[in-house]
Amino acid sequence: MRLLVLATFWGCFWATGFGLQIQCYQCEEFLLNNDCSSPEFIVNCTVNVQDMCQKEVIEKSYGKNWTTVAGIMYRKSCASSGACLITSAGYQSFCAPGKLDSVCISCCNTPLCNGPRLKKRVNSAAMLRGGILPTMLPFMLALLSTHC
Asked: Which of 38, 44, 109, 120 is the most exposed place for a label (fewest CB within 10 A)?
């Protein structure tokens, strides 16, 4: 009996394909100067179908009533890897960040990877205390002693 239950469990487990699911930021409509990276834009993508996050960034200027408004428009979504990679490759020649009419489409496959870019915060004092220098110091000393 235990063998039957175990076999049934493993059959169901393998049949589901492990149930891979990713979370992405999603805003289907282009939003002007809003990168839709706040918690209300987080969605669960379709299991085993949408395995990537996609991000489109368009730099535009709009004229309305003799006024020009410039800004960056964002659209983010879940996507299948095939569709996302084909789309991003097709727009690669139009991607020129910082230039007007630039269209950049990127794909990624880690949770919430289509969100804002993390700013690198490097504190040189912290690196000297407990970061790279103490780790690299023995290696550098050994290297110097072999060449001197």
From this structure: 120
The Cα–Cα gap between 32 and 60 comes to: 9
pLDDT (tens digit per residue) in 17-76: 556 799 999 997 777 778 889 999 999 999 999 999 999 999 887 766 666 667 888 899
Q: How many CB atoms lie within 10 A of CB 36?
A: 21
Residue 54 CB contacts under 8 Å (≥ 6 apart), including other chains: 24, 76, 77, 78, 79, 84, 87, 88, 105, 106, 107, 114
Neighbour-count burial for 82-102, b at 16+ CB within 10 Å, e otherwise: eebeeebeeeeeeeeeeeeeb
- Look at the pTM and tell me if it is higher than 0.90: no
95 within 8 A of 104, measured Cβ to Cβ: yes
**Helix, strand or coil, per DSSP, at residue 84:** helix
User: 19-112 adopts what CATH topology?
Assistant: CD59 (2.10.60)
- The amino acid at residue 122 is V
- Domain positions in the chain are 19-112
> Is the separation of the CB atoms in 55 and 87 below 8 Å?
no
